C-alpha cells in the first residue's frame, strides 16, 4: 500500500512531542507539507530543525483565539487537519473545580472545533480534505482517576460525527481516532504517578497495565508511531470511504466488536 500525500498541506496541533510529533513525521514521510504546532516558538523550531521533510513552523496556543489566529496567519489553508492537542492528568473526581473542567474543555475540545470551523469551509469548496480528532479509549471507558479528561474525549466523538454530517457529499472526510494507552513522556509521568517511582520503567509499565488497564489485549503501551500509521492512512486518498467513524488504535482495550 503506497500512500502519497505530495502536494497536500497538513496541520498537526500539539506536534512538538509524543503522538503529535509521530503523526507529523509520518505525514512528512508520505510527502505532505506539515505545519508543526506548539505553544512556544522555541519548541516548534527544534522540531522543525531535527525532523526530516517539508515542515512549517506554526507556533501558537490554539486553545486561545489569538493563538489560533497566529496559526491561521501562517497556514491560512490546509488539506489535512489533525486535532491532536490535548491535556490529561489524574485527579479525584470530586476535587475537580469548575475552572479545571473549563480548562480541559477549552484545550481538548474547543481548540479542535475552532480550527475545524476555520478550515472546513475551504476544504468543502475545493472538494477534498481530511479532518481528524485524536480521541482516546477514555472516551468510551471513562477512567475514574480522570473523568474530566474522559468527558472531553467523548465530546470529540460527538463533534467528529456531527461535522462529518456537515461535510457530507463534499469530498471531505471527518473521523476520530480512538488511541489506546500510548507510550509518551507524559504517560510515563502518569504511570509513575499511579504506581510509584521506585520501579524500573519496564516493571512500572507492566504494573500500570495490570492494575489500571487490564482490558488491553496488547498488554503493553502502544508506541506513538502505531497511532501515526492510522492517521496517515486516514489522511490519504485511500481512505476516501471512511468518514463519520471512530477508528480504534487501542490495542483491543475497548471491550467491543463495534466498530
Automatic annotation (TrEMBL):
One GO molecular function term of this record is: oxidoreductase activity
**An annotated GO BP:** monocarboxylic acid metabolic process
Q: Which Pfam families match?
A: adh_short_C2
Entry superkingdom: Bacteria
User: Oxidoreductase: is it a keyword of this entry?
Assistant: yes
Keyword set, alphabetical order: Oxidoreductase
Query: InterPro entries under this entry?
Result: NAD(P)-bd_dom_sf, Sc_DH/Rdtase_CS, SDR, SDR_fam
Q: Could you list the residue ranges that cross the membrane? A: none
Membership in a protein family: Belongs to the short-chain dehydrogenases/reductases (SDR) family.
Name recorded for this polypeptide: SDR family oxidoreductase
Q: What is the lineage of its organism?
A: Bacteria, Bacillati, Actinomycetota, Actinomycetes, Streptosporangiales
Amino acid at each position: 500500500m503506497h500512500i502519497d500525500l505530495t502536494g497536500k498541506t497538513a496541520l498537526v496541533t500539539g506536534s512538538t512531542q509524543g503522538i503529535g510529533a509521530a503523526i507529523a513525521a509520518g505525514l512528512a514521510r508520505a510527502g505532505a507539507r506539515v505545519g508543526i504546532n506548539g505553544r512556544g516558538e522555541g519548541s516548534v523550531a527544534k522540531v522543525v530543525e531535527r525532523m526530516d521533510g517539508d515542515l512549517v513552523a506554526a507556533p501558537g496556543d490554539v486553545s486561545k483565539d489569538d493563538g489560533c489566529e497566529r496559526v491561521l496567519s501562517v497556514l491560512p489553508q490546509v488539506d489535512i487537519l489533525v486535532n491532536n492537542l490535548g491535556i490529561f492528568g489524574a485527579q479525584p473526581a470530586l476535587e475537580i473545580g469548575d475552572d479545571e473542567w473549563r480548562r480541559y474543555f477549552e484545550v481538548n475540545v474547543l481548540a479542535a472545533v475552532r480550527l475545524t470551523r476555520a478550515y472546513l469551509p475551504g476544504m468543502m469548496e475545493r472538494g477534498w480534505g481530511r479532518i481528524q480528532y485524536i480521541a482516546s479509549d477514555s472516551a468510551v471507558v471513562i477512567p475514574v482517576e480522570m473523568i474530566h479528561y474522559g468527558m472531553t474525549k467523548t465530546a470529540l466523538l460527538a463533534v467528529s460525527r456531527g461535522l462529518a454530517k456537515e461535510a457530507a457529499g463534499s469530498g471531505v472526510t471527518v473521523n476520530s481516532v480512538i488511541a489506546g494507552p500510548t507510550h509518551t513522556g507524559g504517560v510515563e509521568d502518569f504511570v509513575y504517578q499511579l504506581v510509584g517511582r521506585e520501579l524500573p520503567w519496564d516493571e512500572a509499565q507492566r504494573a500500570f497495565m495490570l492494575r489500571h488497564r487490564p482490558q488491553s489485549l496488547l498488554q503493553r503501551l502502544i508506541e506513538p508511531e502505531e497511532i501515526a500509521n492510522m492517521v496517515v492512512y486516514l489522511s490519504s486518498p485511500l481512505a476516501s470511504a471512511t468518514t463519520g467513524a471512530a477508528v480504534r488504535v487501542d490495542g483491543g482495550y475497548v471491550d467491543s466488536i463495534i466498530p
